[in-house]
Amino acid sequence: MSRIGRAPISVPAGVEITIGSDNLVTVKGPKGTLTQQLSPAMTISQEGSELHVTRPNDAKENRALHGLTRSLLHNMVVGVTDGFKKELDVNGVGYRVAKEGNKLVMNLGFSHQVTMEEPEGISIDVPNPNKIVISGSDKQKVGQFAAEVREKRPPEPYKGKGIKYTDEVIRRKEGKTGVKKK
Description:
Blueprint: H1 3-6, E1 9-10, E2 16-19, E3 24-29, E4 32-37, E5 43-47, E6 50-54, H2 60-81, E7 84-91, E8 96-100, E9 103-107, E10 114-117, E11 122-125, E12 131-136, H3 139-151, E13 162-165
Antiparallel strand pairs: 1-6, 2-3, 3-4, 5-6, 7-12, 7-13, 8-9, 9-10, 11-12
């Protein structure tokens, strides 16, 4: 039995969950509303302030979907209550970011500025010129947008210049040592 799928999801006060036909789940909370179509093979039941996910049998596909369905539901509940956040650091001489209106403007050593539009449901905060904080209620959208920002200038292994996640560790390389002359 899936250890993740077996665990109940506690629903905090102020969160309203609607389970429609074919497992169309809508979660409403203080930080917004999330709707997701989950696998119709799984059975989602609400008992008081807990959600339970059960599977019909032990077929390989159902075993895989059991934990996934529970994780997706849990992420929706956490998203509408606390939200998700990714922090990025910008390292490099002359590299900086700024927020102008709903656009993220980045100077990343190119001959031009790189601008990215703030997607719907996601907020971008720039506390200082070398830090980007991306937050929102949908974990998948927050992670995807953070990956797209990082992709504009991924960190390089020699000097560590580029955009990296705050908790990311960059494996550094030594570089050239030169030939010794006699």
